[in-house]
Amino acid sequence: MPKPVDFWFDFASTYAYLAAAHLEEAAAARGIETRWRPILLGPIFALHGWDTSPFVVYPLKGRYMWRDVERRAAKLGRPFRRPDANDPREFPQHTVLAARMALIALDGPYGKEFCRRVFFAEFEEGRDISDPAVLSAIARGAGLPADLADKATTPDNKARLRAQVEAAKELGIFGAPSFTVGEELFWGEDRIDDALEWALDEQAC
Amino acid sequence: MPKPVDFWFDFASTYAYLAAAHLEEAAAARGIETRWRPILLGPIFALHGWDTSPFVVYPLKGRYMWRDVERRAAKLGRPFRRPDANDPREFPQHTVLAARMALIALDGPYGKEFCRRVFFAEFEEGRDISDPAVLSAIARGAGLPADLADKATTPDNKARLRAQVEAAKELGIFGAPSFTVGEELFWGEDRIDDALEWALDEQAC
């Protein structure tokens, strides 16, 4: 068996959205299992001294990123819709509740579908994914129980998300999407193939 | 004819080194002309408030970058040698003379070979490419005239390099390697295929 590939993401990340759209297909084609690991980039970016997305901190990079994501989404056949990057309600969105819900959802069979639907709602339909009602509707649509948002906000589950962010830091993760195979780190949606090939090579060793 | 692809680089950039190693082959396979455009990242990074490489400013990104470049060089079959990133003489190197020499060399048929040899000397042999003697030896080896370094430091040529950096800024370039097809910008060694495909698609329009 190839090693599993861990996919670390924050729902606010545009490139994580692209990764979510095509990771499973690429992994399944190689017989590789993926494990989806929602995190929050806020505490990680704080290590760099940033209090928001680097695409807001560095406007030139931001301008490029929107165009690049638009092009890559078109390649994947996804109807990406550019948010208003000057409106902090549109980008980066607050993702803590979505991440907490995803953490629980991913314990069961509908978790990845929930995550994809959250990303698509955010970056294709322009929905506000910090809104509990929006998230609960997505959860129901993905086949998840109605009380997911309530379970997500228990002290235990909050602590679980914090622990997952700490685990990401310990792996040296500094952005999203990131992929890990054991302790080997790959950063960026454009490293999916590198990560999957690494997982296959590890198997051979 | 497909549109040409412009390749913007600073000799201090590790990912530009990787791009220089395989861009020509990828472009030639698609019948695309490349135009190599040496620049200096210093004045561009200054726009972000950085006085050195972002891989020095952000150590977590730096640590990842060295590992990532090592892996990608191995894929390309290149004998990358990691410099001492804590020694400012080793990384990032001072590249102004190399860029000025490349600017002239690229007017003729040996320019790209000169550039590749500079990158390989720096990132595979650990040479100091700020040293005029090292650069002159590389130039001779690439078939260029012995007085290239002298010609490179004329006021006219210095102004030419400054103008090229300004042109890069006007295109929205914020790092290297960057690739442009007309005004369409692609950033990163991992966007070579995207840029080449764009050049081919432009032809069809």
Automatic annotation (TrEMBL), chains A, B:
The active site is at 13 (nucleophile). It catalyses: 2-hydroxychromene-2-carboxylate = (3E)-4-(2-hydroxyphenyl)-2-oxobut-3-enoate. Its EC number is 5.99.1.4. GO terms for biological process: glutathione metabolic process; naphthalene catabolic process. Keywords: Isomerase. One of its GO terms (molecular function) is glutathione transferase activity. It is an enzyme of class 5 (isomerase). Residues 5-194 form the DSBA-like thioredoxin domain. Belongs to the GST superfamily. NadH family. This is 2-hydroxychromene-2-carboxylate isomerase.
